Amino acid sequence: MKPVLVLGHGQLGLMMAAAGARLGLRVDRLDTESEELLPGTSPMRLPVTAAGLLETYPLITAEKEHLPESELVETLRAAPAWMNRQAFLDLADREREKQLLDRLEIPTASWCLLSSPDDIEPALKALGEHMIIKVTRGGYDGRGQWRLPGDNPDTLPAESFGAMIAESLIRFDREVSLVGVRGDNGNTRYLPLAENVHHDGILRYSIAGEDSNPFLQRQAETLLGRIMDELDYTGVMAMECFEEDGRLLVNELAPRVHNSGHWSQLGTEHDQFALHLRALLDLPLPETEYFRPTLMLNLIGCDFVPQWLAIPEIQCHWYGKEPRPGRKLGHININAASMAELRDVTARLRPLLDEEHRRMLDEALAHYKRESDNRRRQD
Predict the structure, then answer these.
(1) Which of 70, 120, 156, 341 could anchor a disulfide with 336, C-beta 3.0 to 4.6 Å?
(2) Whole-number Å distance between alpha carbons of 41 and 234
(3) Which of 8-17, 198-207, 238-247, 286-295 shows the lowest per-residue confidence on average (mean pLDDT)?
(4) Could you report the per-residue pLDDT of 310-322, keeping only the tens digit for each?
């Protein structure tokens, strides 16, 4: 099978390389800042040239939308090996993403471009008294975002006007995301919706594997399918949405594997990383899939605790990064056949977490119980 190059060497690329190894597939990662190659899951670093990479890798994908504008990266993105060129052009820029959604008549928050500070007052009048301002490129995990009223408009970076949008604030019922995969032949498969809980702009936990609302699942699949078809996309794409009174509004799109799909590593037979590689290489996508209700807990700004590994019912992924506040350092997946079993697993995990992660786990467990009760009532 063809070797694959991933632009980016973070945890998403690492997990893609691990999934590739299980298929006997060579997946290597490129540190786009230092311009060094990391073979497979190895930390070894090798010097490279654009010509050498293009000679070696007939398929190039990425673990992130926002790539440095270096000569090496631009050469790779101009090559036929670079997959999903249009998707990365449109979805790496919030203004272009919003224009795409509007063109397809896909529901999203009302928005406008902020070209200068003089546009703020008219935007408040047009979008409502509460709005969110976002830089069009580079913002993630709550960075590059401001709320009005609340944040001081004078703190908005002057150099970002013309590259910021304002959105109306959505009073949503919950946040959900859908991971879909589209093959080169246009065939699609979808994972169940995940419900996501964020604090301070960072995903704290996801609950997925069995959605309680089939109508919402079909609605999400229709929306994401239209987007992937429009972009002639191949691979895994994630769509984050707000649910408002049974209606989905698309918030963000990611032309790649995504944090909210990590639950699939334990909750599915074929996780998002394997699905992405299958689609890129034109390998068969699974016709059917068995899903298990799964809780994914992000590990943020904490230290690694080896005792986590002593709990057989959990799956721990640690990214090997230097700990710092607010940084995603790993995640834990948990699934169980019943609430009683889940309580037993989390009771053993809870003492091994710091205070912040215990609070997150308690909140997630209460959330999981509500979803489980809802499913039983519907059944």
Answers:
(1) 341
(2) 24
(3) 286-295
(4) 999 899 999 999 9
| H runs (alpha helix) in 69-206 | 71-77, 85-91, 94-103, 120-127
CB 277 within 8 A of CB 27: yes
Integer Rg of the chain from CA: 21
The 10 Å CB-count burial string (b at 16+, else e) for 354-372 is eeebeebbeebbebbeebb
Does the bond joining 122 to the residue before it have cis omega, within 30 degrees of 0? Answer: no
pLDDT of the residue at 298: 97
For residues 219 and 248, the answer to whether their CB atoms sit within 8 Å is yes
Give the whole-angstrom CA distance, residue 349 versus residue 197. Answer: 20
Residue of 149 and 240 predicted with greater confidence: 240
Asked if the bond preceding 255 is cis, omega within 30° of 0, the reply is: no
Flag the least confident range among 27-41, 138-152, 283-297, 338-352.
138-152
Q: Helices 11-22 and 272-280 sit at what angle, rounded to 10 degrees?
A: 70
153 vs 162: CA distance, rounded Å:
15
**Which of 35, 272, 38, 36 has its CA nearest to residue 27?**
38
Tell me the Ramachandran region of residue 5: left when phi exceeds 0, alpha when psi lies from -120 to 50, beta otherwise.
beta
